[in-house]
Amino acid sequence: MAKKELSIEQKIKYVQDTLFVISGKWKLPIMIAINNGNNRFRDIQRAVPNITTRVLSKELKDLEENRLVVRTVYDSLPVTVSYTVTPYCKSLKPMVDEMIKWGENHRAMLKKIKPA
Amino acid sequence: MAKKELSIEQKIKYVQDTLFVISGKWKLPIMIAINNGNNRFRDIQRAVPNITTRVLSKELKDLEENRLVVRTVYDSLPVTVSYTVTPYCKSLKPMVDEMIKWGENHRAMLKKIKPA
DNA sequence: GATGCCAGTTACCTAAAGGATACCAAAATG
DNA sequence: CATTTTGGTATCCTTTAGGTAACTGGCATC
């Protein structure tokens, strides 16, 4: 197949779609935390520095709605709640990896131009 | 060299650094537009749907401060102003490409699960 | 029976992002 | 000479994101 070339309008539209889903300080950090084995509410909260319960609760709901995270209630005693990432969430990995790389490099760059 | 494995705390930190620089509805669309040959203020505005002059002006200043865009005034008659992306801005390309890909796929997915 | 952990909810508030509208001077165009 | 284009500013306003703090009910522990 020929590699499709997107128009600039399409590129902008798709980037904005992506931004709409992942933007904000917390959604990606939360997904990273869950993906790393933090499945309980308090575990996630501990893994994501400085997030409050209120914000975490709200963001988890958003992520559920966008089918990136699944909430499961186990009928144990006491009930436990588990959050897991969906396969769809994992499709974000290449993008997130690039974001991590860029952020790491960016921080190194800032040190160089603004030393001491 | 051994491939360095980042801790979850580091991953979260770097992602948040990146988000801090690119977040908002407009910064990436503006960079895409400039990179595609829209160098004049009004050209950029036309290329980025629905952005207002006020917001574009402010975002361009932010991008200049972050060394992602350069503003050049040509002493012609009348004076012309040209915006160009820096080499540093181009280092965002792999990430932006992944975001475009994901957004395209995401839109296709939404069509499937919510047809007509 | 007081304290603490879990998984949140509720109400309130502030700061920032973004939008709407109007306006400006200088030059070009019709 | 009226209009349009360029590269923006200035005001004002609304919306959203995010933070603070208190509280809940159920269970477990000391």
From TrEMBL, chains A, B:
| Location of the HTH hxlR-type domain | 12-111
SUPFAM superfamilies registered for this protein in UniProt: Winged helix' DNA-binding domain
Single annotated GO MF: DNA binding
What superkingdom does the record give? Answer: Bacteria
What is the protein name for this chain? HxlR family transcriptional regulator
Keywords of the record, alphabetical order, are: DNA-binding, Transcription, Transcription regulation
InterPro entries referenced in this protein's UniProt entry, alphabetically: HTH_HxlR, WH-like_DNA-bd_sf, WH_DNA-bd_sf
Provide the coiled-coil residue spans. none
One matching Pfam family is HxlR
